[in-house]
Amino acid sequence: MTTETAPAVKDVSAPRTGGPAQNTTAVSGGTAGAGQPAADRGRTSIADVVVVKVAGIAAREIPGVYDMGGGLSRTIGAVRDRVPGGRPNVGRGVKVEVGERQTAIDLDLVVEYGVPVMDVARDVRENVVSAVERITGLEVVEVNVTVNDVRLPDEEESAPAADARVE
After folding, report:
1. Helix (H) or strand (E) holding 58
2. What's the rounded Cα separation, in Å, for the pair 58 and 122?
3. Read out DSSP for 124-153?
């Protein structure tokens, strides 16, 4: 009579030790992993709006950036900013794609007249990459900067018509 032995079962419920460090730890049978360190239990998801806001704030911090967004979005944003109780939209002019570990960012800028556009774009790119990677932990694979307009020194902010009609 021949005796067969069952194949050895590998215990994947315990953290791996030795060998190269790994970012994921397997949990057997889909359990919650009570034996795992608290930091390894569960999954973290970062919404697109988080990356949009971080990138928008970081881009606006750079000297020479006057505003963000295309013509229509800036017009709508100016009206929205003047509404009592309205908050400025820090995400205007920012588009993102967010994956599990990486993100790509597109920015539409208006720069001040007289500043070197390529220097401003480089500084914006560096600041956005640094802020997004530091705050979200996502790897920024690219930051595409489009300069849509230049703010001339003699351009006045357009006031809504209602302000000009009555004192």
Report:
1. helix 48-60
2. 13
3. HHHHHHHHHHHHH--EEEEEEEEEEEEE-T
